[in-house]
Amino acid sequence: MxxxxxxxxxxxxxxxxxxxxxxxxxxxxxxLVFLALGQAPLHAFAVFFLEPLSTAYGVGxxxxxxxxxxxxxxxxxxxxxxxxxxxxxDGQLTMGAIAAGCVALAFPREHAFWLxxxxxxxxxxxxxxxxxxxxxxxxxxxxxxxxVSLMLVYVAYLLLSYLVHGPLRDPEGFxxxxxxxxxxxxxxxxxVDGLRVNLAFPLSLVAVxxxxxxxxxxxxxxxxxxxxxxxxxxxxxxxxxxxNVWLAFLASGALAxxxxxxxxxxxxxxxxxxxxxxxxFAAIIVAYVGxxxxxxxxxxxxxxxxxxxxxxxxxxxxxxxxxxxxLFQGLLLFxxxxxxxxxxxxxxxxxxxxxxxxENAQAAAPQGSGA
Amino acid sequence: MDLxxxxxxxxxxxxxxxxxxxxxxxxxxxxxVINLGVEGMMLIGAVTGFSVTLAxxxxxxxxxxxxxxxxxxxxxxxxxxxxxxxxxVATGLALTLFGIGFSAFEGRSLLGQTVTPLPHLQIPVLxxxxxxxxxxxxxxxxxxxxxxxxxxxxxxxxxxxxGLIIRAVGESPRxxxxxxxxxxxxxxxxxxxxxxxxGVAGAYLSVSLTPMWVEGMTAGRGWIAVAQVVFATxxxxxxxxxxxxxxxxxxxQFQGQAMGLTVPSEFLSMLPYLATIAVLVIIGRNPRxxxxxxxxxxxxxxxxxx
Lengths: 371, 306
Prior knowledge:
The complex is a heterodimer. In chain A, strands 1-2 form a two-stranded antiparallel ribbon. By secondary structure, chain A is mainly α. Chain A has a domain at 54-280. Chain A is built from 14 helices and 2 strands, in the order βαααααααααααααβα. Chain A starts with a strand and ends with a helix. Chain B starts with a helix and ends in a 13-residue tail after the last helix. By secondary structure, chain B is an all-alpha fold.
């Protein structure tokens, strides 16, 4: 006995309502968590969600932390639309950071204007190269891209760890596992004095617009989405399945790589053992919550960024564990998946009237005529 | 020689969590459900097992609690996927992300503490045998139990009515449903079994192998376990081979330096991940291997009354 019955057609209203329902359900569960931790829920919410935005600096931080999420999220949304499961964005981000770091450290005293563009290019290429591995293995050897892209995340982490403990360690850094600070010319210019948000944020908005155009207005984007939604139709129309996989991986890899550049050439300013608190994984949630739509990704990134900020504020002001952020992120995705069910199904109405004889006869009729 | 014995003996410790987690995932997949939440369930098991052991001083209780926690985590997944028809891949990812967040949250007060690890067996005479003693008779009980589980699962899948039904549900849920098998109920059972095994596997890491709680301590082992199922071509005995192979590769990173390898430790640590990719390439190179062995309905949801 199922409690669900299929709708005649998918509900467009539920497509948009599901993320909101999920967010509200997350907040309700969150208040239970706050209660369990001995906090007054309303006060805790105010600290978690409002206090970070009460200063200009906080708003700057919101955009700063949203930037890598937007970049990775836009790329992942593209890939997921093509039914390519790239879940290794955090590795591609790390490789982008490493490449940009190598460029910056190779020219420690350079003031030229071309240094930053070169870093962005190197980062994008490194992200693409890292994403090309699962693309190649899937198209050539039918290897599962979920597992390969994920394994490469750990490899990228370890490579970064090796570099900052070894060849790229700052010789004057008191043996700390980190590189030299980048030269000022290798840092992304700040948008507003006193805030940390930098040029990467407008870049991420460009990515949002470009990806919208790609999906809505370009033939390649159309092909990619057909391949994702109806692979058989795409094959019949002669769209290359391999081309689709490559395009999805390279695009999402490049964007994740740029996100990595934005971190090391932005708030971090050097190479460190960790350059991302899991932005590449949070971006998976962002892509789903944003309905795989560029504009949705933008909004979902801001929400997710607020979760990061709220976690930090709650740790400072309420002595709550900042790990609460990860808990909320996971809950959000669970609730979204549950709410998504109602796009295609609805709750079965309870029958008030018992099944009548005529209905029984009708139900039996097709079987009778078939025999 | 001593080094070699130490290497082989510690391989069993590193292989056991993989054996347990991969075995659970294998049963779920044979019933047609792919659960990518193994990593998350292992982390939840690890933190629960450790905290209960720390609080009660009783490892058995800790392992049992980890099993219950794994079942509870997999119940969320099962409800979403089997009852609410959510996408299996997305829901599995969600379970992993939730497990990472939940375990970090739960484990915040446990950092830096340790428990007495699971004791190793001391069988009179046998454990003292030269060579064979350390190689076969000096492990903790879970090492032996994990092998037993694989043998039992192999027998159940191949030789019993229950095994036949599990395989039927995985190959063709519609046919199984038509002859009166409760497909959804059976899939619930398979997924919860997978959760129990992943929970114990995680706890094995935190109460026996390291014995402490570290954030994200599974370090991708849950994902490697998922890959193991492919490597084993969905057959239990392949799990043992694969897990011990990977156990050996994992131990290399700890024993490599002692054995005189001068490679930086980070590169040795990359080996299990690179080996996983290599293994997937080898298995996937011939698409027929996968097509012939993969449960036909893997990843597809089934609605009994549609």
